[in-house]
């Protein structure tokens, strides 16, 4: 839309031209080609905290103390100073520019964890509408915990996990939710998904998805717990009727099924109270059964298919556990199932995994896919944005580059697909990112692929630590004149003296201001080198 | 009464100064041409309410596929391989020897 790259010319053009329909945000974002964080202040004197991230509305910077017990929240301000000379641009910045306090004001410091607990430094969820933040503290992990009280074997146990809901304006703890002797995967928000005001917390140990609602008053309210029971009154119904012999007649049970269920159960590790499959597992098995049943009208063929596809793998299906969950909308969950071994291991490539779409209101499984299903991959490719479900309230979150909304990302995906040797492996690799982690991507426009091109291995919208290099990371314009616009260089100005130790860097970009922090760390106990990149 | 657009800001104050609106006291003789339908086949039903579909498009596709699968299939197998080539609920665990 703009005919010139000059910012003043663009502002005049903006006065008289309207952008094409539906592109007003994209046109407004083009001003980020002109306003860039090109100036770097190296090695700012900053307190020795762990910097977590900027909240998505840019109001707060969340940090944790080194001992993982305190939360410190800063408000980002901007460096201000006065200069009485005629031409101020020539001057260097005043010495106070090298101080962290010039850019941030501390709002408060709250102690979240008591003596034996630690704050999980990779966990933080922000509810933008009410400015609430969700943090987690936990005690130490106990491996090889005994499987008691409905827990499954093989998953470690944490004595106490507490989720704290804070009002970020003043640091008041509004509510807490405690899980005892449980295990929730807290790293990088993996086990918890926030969708508007609904939270889904996956308890791996007890195989339950807890759905909670965050109310405006700040209370965490239990909505439902999906796992052993699907509806709120299931437990009452089952306890009041004849125990353990009844098989739920929701699915069309064949005579063979009955025998196989009983045989399967004798080998499984279900406790005597749950002598039949109930809850979400029952929904899943009956869905698979009915799907195979409906494939054929011929009765003998049906039974043959059932034997081959269902009963042959019955024990594997029974042994499936919930790995991860995300919301697709307020009523639908995308659940990833897998084996017990894959639940806590880091590499999940070798373990078979399945995806199921579950409707919480009707308690029906709507779809079931294996993790190399082309069908699910096509849905992911075309509608990726709908998997990255975000709150309706935040406008700019809909513009994070993904292969459904950005042509450059789409081209990258196409080239990856063409280069892939095995289509099934490629599909598995792409679907391994589902269900996605909540709030894992930065909304900064500098990561918008239609504005800038940068090396994805060195920096990207995902807030993960990366290998640090001495070379600055270049941001090059996508549009003509396709020049280098600014560089981000982590680490000290002259480069690192000691090249032998491995360094990792992380980057925190402000959501809308031309401001970024780059943090370079070497060993755990050494203080990190923090650089400030901003528009001078 | 000056021009309708005479008071609005403009780069050149003489722009739009020649424009004269129609006098409100004498109605204009021109009426715009109107078209009347000759039939009522395209009338909407009287109780029609148009609302936005609450399910997003991803879920709509998922439900559509689910409905196609639940419909009992024909006995003839030539339609069992749809365009995507892989639509069966078969688990490939059987390929790896346990």
Descriptive account of the structure:
The complex is a heterodimer of chains A (536) and B (98). Chain A is α+β, with helices and mostly antiparallel strands and 536 residues long. Chain A contains 12 helices and 26 strands. The radius of gyration of chain A is 26 Å and the shape is globular. Chain B has 98 residues and is largely without helices or strands.
Topology readout:
The complex is a heterodimer of chains A (536) and B (98).
Chain A: H1 7-16, H2 24-29, E1 39-41, E2 49-54, E3 61-65, E4 70-76, E5 104-111, E6 118-119, E7 125-127, E8 132-138, E9 141-142, E10 157-167, E11 172-182, E12 192-195, E13 198-203, E14 208-214, E15 220-226, H3 234-240, H4 255-267, H5 279-293, H6 299-311, H7 314-318, E16 321-327, E17 332-338, H8 340-344, E18 353-359, E19 364-370, H9 374-382, H10 384-387, H11 407-419, H12 423-431, E20 452-453, E21 466-467, E22 473-477, E23 484-488, E24 504-509, E25 515-521, E26 529-534
Antiparallel strand pairs in A: 1-26, 2-3, 3-4, 4-5, 6-8, 7-8, 8-10, 9-10, 10-11, 12-13, 13-14, 14-15, 16-17, 17-18, 18-19, 20-22, 21-24, 22-23, 24-25, 25-26
Helix pairs in contact in A: 5-6, 9-12
Chain B: H1 57-70
In short:
The complex is a heterodimer of chains A (536) and B (98). Chain A is an alpha+beta fold.
Q: Which percent range describes the beta-strand content of chain A?
A: 25-35%
What does the radius of gyration of chain B come to? 32 Å
The portion of residues forming beta strands of chain B comes to under 5%
The gross shape of chain B turns out to be elongated
**Taking all residues together, what is the mean pLDDT of chain B?**
68
The gross shape of chain A turns out to be globular
Enumerate how many helices of chain B there are, as a single number: 1
Q: How far is it from the N-terminal to the C-terminal residue of chain A, by CA?
A: 27 Å
Low-confidence stretches of chain B: 75-86, 90-98
| Major β-sheet annotation of chain B | none
């Amino acid at each position: 839309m703009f005919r010139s790259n000059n910012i003043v010319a663009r502002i005049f053009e903006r006065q008289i031209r309207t952008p094409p329909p539906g592109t007003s945000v994209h046109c407004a974002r083009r001003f980020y080609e002109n306003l860039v964080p090109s100036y770097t202040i190296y090695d700012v004197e900053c307190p020795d905290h762990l910097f977590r991230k900027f909240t998505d509305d840019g109001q707060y910077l969340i940090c944790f103390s080194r001992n993982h017990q305190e939360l410190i929240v800063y408000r980002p301000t901007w460096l201000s100073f006065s200069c009485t000379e005629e031409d101020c641009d020539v001057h260097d910045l005043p010495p106070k520019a090298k101080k962290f306090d010039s850019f941030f004001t501390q709002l408060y410091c709250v102690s979240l964890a008591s003596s034996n607990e630690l704050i999980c430094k990779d966990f933080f969820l922000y509810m933008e509408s009410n400015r609430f933040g969700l943090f987690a503290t936990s005690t130490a992990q106990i491996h090889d915990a005994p499987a008691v009280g409905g827990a499954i074997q093989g998953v470690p146990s944490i004595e106490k996990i507490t989720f704290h809901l804070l009002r970020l304006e003043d640091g008041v703890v509004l509510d807490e939710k405690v899980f005892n002797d449980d295990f929730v995967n807290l790293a990088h928000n993996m086990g918890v998904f926030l969708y508007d005001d609904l939270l889904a917390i996956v308890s791996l140990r007890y195989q339950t998805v807890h759905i909670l609602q965050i109310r405006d008053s700040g209370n965490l309210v239990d909505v439902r717990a999906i796992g052993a029971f699907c509806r709120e009154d299931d437990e009452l119904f089952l306890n009041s009727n004849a125990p353990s012999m009844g098989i739920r007649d929701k699915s069309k049970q064949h005579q063979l099924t009955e025998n196989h269920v009983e045989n399967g159960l004798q080998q499984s590790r279900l406790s005597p109270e749950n002598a039949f499959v109930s809850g979400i597992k029952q929904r899943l098995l009956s869905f698979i059964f009915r799907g195979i049943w409906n494939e054929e009208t011929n009765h003998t063929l049906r039974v043959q298919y059932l034997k081959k596809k269902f009963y042959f793998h019955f024990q594997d299906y029974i042994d499936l556990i919930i790995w991860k969950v995300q919301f697709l909308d307020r009523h639908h969950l995308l659940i990833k199932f897998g084996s017990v071994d894959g639940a806590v291991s880091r590499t999940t490539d070798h373990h078979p995994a399945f995806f199921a779409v579950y409707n919480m209101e009707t308690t029906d499984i709507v779809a079931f896919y294996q993790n190399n299903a082309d069908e699910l991959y096509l849905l992911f490719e075309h509608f990726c944005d709908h998997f990255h479900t975000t709150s309706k309230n935040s406008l700019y979150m809909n513009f994070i580059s993904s292969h459904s909304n950005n042509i450059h990302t789409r081209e990258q995906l196409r080239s990856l697909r063409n280069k892939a040797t095995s289509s099934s492996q490629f599909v598995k690799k792409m679907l391994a990112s589902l269900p996605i982690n909540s709030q894992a991507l930065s909304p900064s426009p500098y990561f918008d692929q239609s504005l800038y091109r940068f090396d994805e291995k060195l920096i990207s919208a995902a807030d993960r630590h990366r290998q640090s290099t001495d070379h600055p990371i270049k941001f090059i314009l996508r549009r003509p004149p396709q020049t280098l616009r600014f560089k981000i260089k982590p680490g000290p100005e002259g480069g690192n003296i000691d090249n032998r130790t491995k360094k990792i860097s992380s980057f925190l970009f402000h959501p809308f201001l031309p401001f970024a922090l780059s943090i370079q760390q070497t060993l755990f106990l050494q203080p990190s080198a923090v650089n400030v990149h901003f528009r001078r | 009464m000056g021009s309708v657009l005479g008071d609005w800001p403009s780069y050149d104050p003489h722009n739009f100064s020649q424009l004269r609106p129609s006098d409100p006291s004498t109605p204009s003789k021109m009426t715009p041409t109107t078209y009347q339908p000759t039939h009522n086949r395209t009338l909407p039903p009287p109780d029609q309410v148009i609302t936005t579909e609450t399910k997003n498009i991803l879920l709509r596709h998922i439900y559509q596929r689910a409905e196609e699968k639940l419909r009992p299939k024909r006995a003839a197998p030539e339609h069992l391989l749809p365009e995507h080539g892989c639509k069966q609920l078969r688990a490939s665990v059987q390929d790896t020897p346990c």
